[in-house]
Give the backbone structure.
Amino acid sequence: MIKLNPKLSQKFSYTLLCLAAIFAIVPVLLMVFIIIKNGASAISWEFLSSMPKDGMRGGGILPAIIGTLSIVSCAIIVTLPIGVCAAIYLNEYAKDNIFTRIIKLAIVNLAGVPSVVYGLFGLGIFVMFLKLGVSIIAGALTLSIMELPVIITTAKSALNSVPYYFREASLSLGVSRWQTIRYVVLPNAIPGILTGAILSIARISGETAPILFTAVAFYVPHLPHSIFDQVMALPYHLYIISTQIPNMPKDVIYGTALVLLMMVLTMSCVAIFARIYFRKRRKW
Amino acid sequence: MVDKIKIENLSCYYNKKSVLESLNLNIVKNEILSVIGPANSGKTTFLRTLNRMNDFDVTYSRKGNVYLDGDNIFDIDAESLRRRVGMLFAMPIPLPMSIYDNITYAPKRLDLITKKSELDSIVERSLKDASLWDEVKDRLDSSAMNMSGGQQQRLCIARVLAINPEVILFDEPCSGLDPISTAKVEELMIDLKEKYTIVLVTNNVKQASRVSYTTAFFLMGKLIEIDQTGKLFISPKEKETEDYITGRFG
């Protein structure tokens, strides 16, 4: 084996490690570049604000945008309070016993279930058993179950990052446990909980499988009137137009992908800026 | 000489391992009791039992009784006990909010007072009693996290005074402070004993001799000796006490 001198081997490993790190940005840049290059020409106010025409080949994608927004917002409205309450229980109250361990194990396992299985589960429980039909609410409930473990985990770590001595200081003054949580722990954990929630929204916006059987339709000629309506959604719409429709104009496909990508990236950026803002304001 | 707190046969355990063994001790009202002893002597466990802060530790268990004015502290609920028995920690822990809000935090939560004018006056009174008022009166709305360590510790004292307790426990309150801040806190403790009963756990033997009326020496979870501070420091009865206060170990 060739023995490199220390300086040379240092240079060599530095270059190798740095290249590996750079490699991580390449696909992101490439993807964004390709999608913008092919899709930017399709983007117009009309594309964002009108109904599809000519069997999806023309017009806009408004119903898909509205559909995705409504499913995702319903999902977060359901999952955030439950997730945060569960996290508070687990982090602040739960003692380390069999019961708690089973809950924690369930959360870990819930996070590992493939998304298409959630879709089937949602079909069985919400669509058929609870007779919600294929609807915004059924899709939102399916997504919220899928996102619950993530919300619980991020909220729990946000609560956990509030130093224990703040709780002790509050408790030592005769203030109750709940008031300590409400007035000392939560206000300081909310930034972390919020950024976690925003990232969750970004993540579920792009999910296709869980809403496939529970919420979406190939084509709905009108905008949804209530949460019990079937809707179109961006990820599913993208799948349909890129595989199921012949002679689909390429720029419409890429334009749709661009809209979805921008929605997700905007939310991730909001989360990043929120985190920076709150970190600067943090006082301990 | 009235006894404020009576401790009968108190034993404490962590994970069933004994850290404090059958302690019997009386704490005199409106005086300062110092508890000295090396690390692992059970001083802090003793202190945290008096306001039941150890209840949150699942590995902790205890036997025996503690009476506060005749009430068994394990029979009254922990929150009302802590309102009567306030505590200062080794490191100053201001809450991450303004100076004003730190003081009014507990009175508001405990529904002691709600009117703005009363809150204002309790802030002023507590800060004056903690000799901090002159230093901070112009910046009550600024964050408590920006104060110096000594100021933070006096703010914590003011915060305890705001709930008007009967007993105040000091857990090595000067261990993180410089000598000048330490002197201020010590002066404050001497002033405060007029109104409150004070228990001071300290690693600083000289501090105990400066401020306290009675001193107790703990070693390996046992009370070795308790006496009036003057007597204990001049003529200790036990050899271990003498060795410790003269600096031969610990």
User: Anything to note?
Assistant: The radius of gyration of chain A is 23 Å. The interface with chain B takes residues 95-96, 165-166, 168-176, 179, 183-184, 188, 282-284 of chain A (CB under 8 Å). The first strand of chain A starts at residue 52 and ends at 53.
